[in-house]
Design goal:
Radius of gyration: 32 Å
Number of strands: 9
Oligomer: single chain
Number of domains: 5
CATH class of the largest domain: Mainly Alpha
Strand content: 5-15%
Largest sheet: 5 strands, mixed
Structural class: alpha+beta
Length: 688
């Protein structure tokens, strides 16, 4: 029995032993427990064991904000509910259940209505109790029934034929009403700050994908325009009939992305059947029945083809809605529903390894649902195969564990972050056509992102100690605006997710995107994960640097009142590095002043002057040859303080033994972004 089935607690034999004509509600509740509770929860509150891993979150029936309603009120009628259960919700983890008999679908409708009214009744009674005016069960139940009573159906206006003028009018309306959320040409929208009724971030639909909740028929689009999508930022519009249909015609006229049609298999084609299985997170070529719940081991498929081979790929799902995508082969994204087969024909390309992914958040093993197709030269024999690892998500932190780092490690494993970002955040997996390196970013240097002008080992130890005492990242350093801003940036990326930009704008979308964790992780869980990632940062640093003369910055700056440029004047004219020459020091330090009180370091200085040998100061910062750095632009044009890059040297009585900050590319780019400076390559790199 799988983990999910164990949590839900409904063995498959329960249904098989039930009489065939029991009460529809009784049968519906049993069907619900078997098929639906792992996502929607045993009481329909959207809190099943799979819920935190799905996008968008499963519906909480007691709230009543069902997306697909065809009437003037927020609760769907029985036909709406039947359609949603039977056909699923494209683009979400809600699969179609059209493989179930009609009477079972009707029984599930009865179960969902029952759970919705039961949940609303409970909510009403609790609210009344808090107000000090308790309600009876009968009164609350009747109020809940009235609350969820469907209203009159939405009357669709008579259809208007599509013409060039209606499409043009539709574009005008689209630009006026829709582009504030949806992309201008209907593709992937950059808008990332919208939320649904659960507080989870929700992203405007990509019309080119064809994956719309109601479908992309003319009637479905018209109904969405007039009714909106309850519980989402998609509003209902009151438009004249001509404008409704003009907008429909424009959206349907948007160019669609590449799609694969179902085709008949020619006799010479190699047929490969792949079934998506959410737990343990594999695409398998084994025979798996619809409704599989981890009752037997399932192995990932290993596909080996030869160049030029004709292939018929049959895609199925054993459980939820999966999305098959192989950008390098030009296949997908294709939604794969339980009980339905998607068939794609292609020719094996040049020898190489071609990856494929699942694009839908399908459960806690989603990020392990990737594999590859190995294409060999004609006639070549495979040398062997490496078995793909199955998903093994981590458990919650063991009972009694109080360390914030251990809690963060548990959340990092539980949410399968390592699948993309690597163990301890050390490195990401390949992400096709993604900027900047076609890899998911590593997170073991997250500390450098938070402490943009750091971090020191002391900074990290102090922060971890304060977090262990119950403080949050947001309040660690209230006087450090830069740290607070960087924390907000990192936290926002986790909460809202991130749309990874394409390396090649004309190429495919990167298949791995950072999902929104809003409504999946609490603030204290995010802080624990950040603490864990900060703790793995390498604090050892480079080998220490030793100077021949122990220069006292504090004496010169604090006591004598010198400015940085009094000794490092060459940087203002970009005349090489700013290491002082002897001639800079000699006006203040005359060897003739040597006496018994002269310190050892000052004596060394006099020795160099008398021998006319330049002091061999050791370089603290050594930039690569391909980096062009202008002190003048940073100090005079940008008016930056030297401490931004060199640290608070004015407080040092001894010379620094290493650089205050790790001035690597990501450090500089983050600072440029913060200061509003250019991050174009030519801004910092010489022409090559």
């Amino acid at each position: 029995m799988s983990l999910v089935v164990g949590l839900v607690g409904c063995p498959k034999s329960r249904l098989s032993n039930m009489p065939g004509r029991e009460d529809p509600l009784t049968r519906g509740l049993a069907l619900y427990e078997e098929n639906c509770a792992r996502c929607h929860g045993d009481r329909g509150l959207g809190d099943g064991p799979e819920a935190p891993f799905l996008y968008p979150m499963p519906r909480n029936f007691s709230v009543g904000n069902f997306r697909l309603t065809s009437n003037t009120r927020g609760f769907p009628d029985e036909e709406d509910m039947l359609r949603a259960i039977r056909d699923g919700l494209p683009g979400s983890a809600m699969p179609p259940w059209h493989h179930l008999p009609a009477e079972d679908l009707q029984a599930l409708v009865a179960a969902v209505k029952h759970l919705a009214i039961e949940g609303k009744t409970r909510n009403l009674m609790e609210a009344a109790e808090e107000r000090g005016a308790p309600m009876t069960v009968a009164a609350a139940t009747q109020l809940a029934r009235d609350w969820f009573a469907p209203g009159p159906p939405v009357d669709l206006p008579a259809a208007v034929p599509e013409t060039p003028s209606t499409v043009a009018r539709g574009r005008q309306l689209y630009e006026e009403l829709c582009v504030s959320c949806h992309a201008l040409e209907g593709g992937v929208s950059p808008k990332r700050d919208m939320q649904d009724d659960t507080g989870a971030y929700i992203y405007p639909r990509n019309f080119k994908s064809g994956l719309l909740l109601r479908g992309n028929s003319e009637e479905a689009l018209a109904l969405t325009i007039l009714r909106g999508l309850p519980g989402t930022p998609m509003p209902a519009y009151e438009l004249p009939a001509d404008d409704v249909w003009a907008l429909v015609h424009f959206v349907r006229a948007l160019p669609e992305g590449a799609k694969q049609d179902e085709v008949a298999a020619p006799p010479e084609a190699t047929r490969i059947a792949l079934t998506g299985v959410a737990d343990p997170g594999v695409w398998t070529d084994e025979a798996v029945e619809v409704g599989y719940r981890g009752t037997a081991p399932v192995a990932a498929a290993h596909i080996v083809l030869h160049e030029g081979e004709q292939v018929i790929l049959e895609l199925k799902s054993a459980d939820v809605t999966h999305g098959f995508y192989s950008p390098e082969l030009g296949i997908g994204p294709l939604e794969v529903y339980p009980g339905h087969t998607r068939i794609v024909r292609f020719e094996a390309p040049a020898p190489g390894e071609y990856e494929f992914f699942c694009m839908n958040m399908c459960g806690h093993c989603h990020f392990s649902m990737k594999g590859s197709i190995l294409v060999l030269p004609k006639g070549a024999e495979p040398a062997g195969e490496d078995l793909a690892a199955h998903c093994e998500p981590g458990d919650d932190a063991p009972a009694g564990v109080t360390s914030v780092i251990d809690r963060g490690r548990a959340v990092y494993r539980k949410m399968a972050c390592a699948t993309c970002h690597g163990e301890e955040g050390r490195g990401g997996v390949r992400n096709v056509n993604a900027l900047p390196t076609e890899r998911v970013i590593a997170l073991d240097r997250l500390a450098e992102k938070l402490w943009l002008r750091g971090p020191t080992a002391s900074d990290i130890e102090t922060a971890l100690g304060m977090l262990e005492q119950g403080q949050s990242f947001a309040t660690l350093f209230p006087d450090d605006d830069l740290f607070s801003r960087q924390y907000e940036t990192v936290s926002r990326s986790i909460l809202a997710g991130e749309l990874t930009p394409r390396k090649d704008p004309a190429g495919p979308d990167p298949p791995l995107q950072m999902p929104a964790m809003k409504a999946r992780l609490r603030t204290e869980e995010i802080d624990a994960v950040l603490a864990y990632l900060v703790s793995v940062y390498d604090r050892s640093g480079p080998e220490p640097i030793h100077q021949v003369v122990a220069f006292n910055h504090m004496l010169h700056v604090e006591d004598l009142g010198l400015e940085c440029m009094d000794c490092h004047e060459p940087v203002l004219e970009d005349r090489g590095v700013g290491v002082p020459r002897n001639e800079t020091c000699e006006p203040c330090h005359d060897p003739s002043d040597r006496d018994e009180s002269t310190s050892a370091d000052l004596g060394k200085l006099y020795d160099y002057f008398e021998r006319d040998v330049e002091i061999p100061w050791a370089r603290v910062h050594e930039l690569p040859e391909h980096v062009v750095f202008s002190h003048r632009r940073h100090v005079t044009a940008a008016n930056l303080d030297c401490a931004n890059c060199h640290g608070e040297l004015a407080r040092y009585e001894r010379p620094p033994t290493r650089a205050a900050f790790n001035l690597k590319m990501n450090w500089c780019m983050d600072c440029h972004e913060f200061e509003g400076a250019s991050n174009e390559c030519r801004a910092c790199h010489a022409d090559t």
